[in-house]
Amino acid sequence: MKPPYCFLCHRDFHLDKGGDLVRFADYVPLAEGMIGHPSGSEWFCPEHLSAATALAFKTSSEALHDLQREYGEFPPLPFFGLGPHREPTVLFVGALMHKIVGIVRKITGRSPPKDK
To answer: In this structure, what are the phi and psi dihedrals at residue 26, rounded to the nearest 5 degrees?
Structure first.
């Protein structure tokens, strides 16, 4: 599932009340046991939710195009991954450190001291 960032303004509203996921006419739920974001649905902040809900009878691409035409373009959502000039963020993981390092080692093939 995508985190709750408004499709239009990219506002992170997970701590605010009132935003919601809108399912459009082309909504397809994920199969049982699947992880991800269902096709045909997008998050909207409290400010844009009513306009998006009013267009839920359309396909997601039609509705999103209409909403962008009505509200205009917003700055793009910032990239949250590591860039060429950013260092990894150190997180406190407590007792789960050995499990997390083991998972990272399986994925990357690197030695545990390097991952720690």
So the answer is: -95, 20
pLDDT (mean) for 77-104: 63
pLDDT attached to residue 42: 93
Q: Half-sphere exposure of 30 toward its Cβ, with a 13 Å CA cutoff?
A: 9
Q: Other CB atoms closer than 10 Å to residue 55's CB: what's the count?
A: 19
Q: How is residue 22 annotated by DSSP?
A: E
- Coil, strand or helix at 42: strand
pTM of the entire structure? 0.63
CA 115 to chain centre: 26
Neighbours of 18 (CB within 10 A): 11
